[in-house]
Design a protein that fits this description.
The protein has a single domain, classed as 4-Layer Sandwich (Metallo-beta-lactamase, Chain A), CATH 3.60.15.10. The protein is built from four helices and seven strands. 27% of the residues are buried.
């Protein structure tokens, strides 16, 4: 919670917080909630989470970049048969592999790769988030249409959105 990651000090936060240290790969149990962790492919390190509670599973993979030659085994493990995978889909494949300005090595993935991972892992629903700030609402709407044409239970996350886990 310090620079360069977060410029606002904890004392400003308006809640009571408790911190528990863990190592990447640990499984954390909080009452009847189980949280699996795994390292993600990002230049500054990142952690993915699989949260299981009352028979439902939500997987959160922020700040992750896919590998060009294989699926990320950590992401596949976390995402296995999840009810929903919330995935870093900052770019389109076209932007990611753009010859003039590729995004390879920046630590973020594409919505197209998210679909491949979701299918391989048996995920029921995917939510694309962490959108490139340069993307317009119109582009995100286009991505939503393209996404749902190949993965009907896919969606582009929006600010304030809530998603029931059924």
């Amino acid at each position: 919670m310090v620079n360069p990651n977060f410029p606002i000090p904890l004392q400003v936060m308006g809640s009571e917080m408790k911190f528990n240290d863990f190592k990447n790969g640990d499984v954390i149990k909080l009452d009847d909630i189980e949280i699996e962790t795994a390292p993600l492919n990002h230049p500054n390190f990142a952690v993915g989470y699989r949260v299981c509670w009352e028979g439902k599973t939500v997987v959160y993979c922020p700040d992750t970049e896919h590998y060009e030659d294989r699926f990320d085994e950590n992401v596949l493990h976390l995402a296995r048969n999840a009810d929903i995978l919330i995935y870093d889909a900052t770019y389109t494949n076209e932007e990611y592999y753009d010859v003039k300005s590729p995004k390879i090595g920046w630590g973020h993935s594409t919505w197209e790769v998210a679909v491949e991972i979701a299918k391989k892992a048996g995920v029921k629903q995917i939510a694309m988030f962490q959108h490139d700030p340069g993307h317009s609402d119109d582009l995100l709407d286009e991505i939503q249409v393209a996404l749902q044409s190949i993965f009907p239970n896919g969606l582009v996350a929006k600010e304030g959105m809530t998603i029931p886990i059924v």
